[in-house]
Amino acid sequence: MEFIGNKNYWDEKYASRGDQPLSPEKSLVENAEYLKNGSVLDIACGDGRNTLFLLEKGFTVTGVDFCDQALARLKMFADQKNYIVDTKQVDLSLANSLEDIGIFDNIIINHYKLREEQLANLKNHLSDGGILFVCGFGSKHTVDAKVRKEDLIQTTDFDEVQKAFELIKYAEDQDDRGYFVTYIFRKLK
Fold this sequence. Notes:
The chain is built from five helices and seven strands; from the N terminus they run ααβαβαββαβββ.
């Protein structure tokens, strides 16, 4: 699955960005108290705006992305702040790409839509009581050249997830970038 552009698009985007990371996702900042202390897997971490925020909050973070330019920037930003971060280059378009990723206390997915089977499999990568945080363009977002209909997060995307998780918070938000949804799940014990 290709999400909001291909590898060349993202390589060029990160290569042309300035020397400062973007601010963390507003929804993550506002809902950080839901996260379980410990480790975080940041899926599709980009150049680390959320990873850096979580490191600052004392979490141990592993960031995964398919773009080597993004991961290099994340390492640079982390080094500037003397943070230790684990990064892995992962092609999330492959169905089994997260198979051997490990177990974490939290998994965050921001502005990326995993396949439903990948989402359902995340239960195998979260500790008991672990948190799955998903934020991105919701079904009410206006489709455009960068965000396709298949990129929008639908309630039905979580049908399988809800067999192993409880939804503890759902939120909708709209700003100048578009219409967003946030789902926060806790893994059942």
